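in:
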């Protein structure tokens, strides 16, 4: 006998599976000894692998960012500013996802993983421009203000472009729309969060680093 258990749209896949397993473990003592319960398809395994993939993407991005930024800038303070922005952006994205009612599934985690590269790019562009102005002399505050004012319009344009490309996916209907809506919204949230932090949080860190 095959029993299908389907989560509600607003439910967390991993949490549902964990609760089902707990209920099955509690029922085993009441079942006949010749009755065996075995999972046929467990979607939480895919979600857990996706979580690991996102984690690995963040860690690899951080390590590569540190190596490349320090290799070119030779300045630990400026490098650490960019490194701090990346996990803060990801955490802020998770909070925004929670507020929007999005759970952790294959599509939302795939959106976060796909946006990591652009998130890193925003932080690096701002930090590199600040460092360029600092190398020309003058006070740190003036260098940060000049760098941010110079890069604001280009970085807004470069970030809004992929958001505009992905957002129409959220308007799809049917089964396809259900799958791609979470991906599009998650990527848009991650990119917009990255933009806001790149133009606010990053300059503040750079000014006091």
């Amino acid at each position: 006998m095959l029993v299908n258990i389907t989560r509600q749209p607003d439910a967390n896949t991993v949490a549902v599976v964990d609760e089902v397993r707990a209920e099955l473990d509690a029922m085993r003592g009441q079942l006949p000894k010749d009755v065996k319960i075995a999972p046929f398809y467990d979607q939480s395994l895919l979600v857990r692998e996706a979580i690991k993939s996102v984690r690995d993407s963040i860690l690899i991005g951080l390590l590569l960012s540190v190596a490349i930024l320090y290799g070119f800038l030779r300045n630990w303070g400026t490098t650490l500013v960019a490194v701090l922005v990346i996990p803060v952006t990801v955490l802020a994205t998770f909070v925004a996802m929670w507020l929007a009612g999005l759970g952790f599934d294959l599509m939302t985690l795939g959106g976060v993983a796909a946006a990591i590269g652009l998130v890193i790019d925003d932080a690096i562009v701002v930090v590199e421009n600040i460092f360029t102005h600092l190398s020309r002399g003058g006070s740190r505050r003036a260098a940060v203000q000049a760098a941010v004012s110079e890069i604001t319009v280009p970085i807004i344009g470069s970030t809004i472009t992929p958001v505009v490309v992905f957002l129409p996916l959220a308007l799809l209907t049917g089964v396809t729309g259900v799958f791609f809506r979470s991906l599009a919204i998650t990527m848009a949230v991650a990119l917009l969060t990255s933009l806001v932090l790149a133009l606010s949080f990053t300059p503040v860190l750079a000014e006091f680093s």
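note: Residues 43-73 form the longest helix (31 residues).
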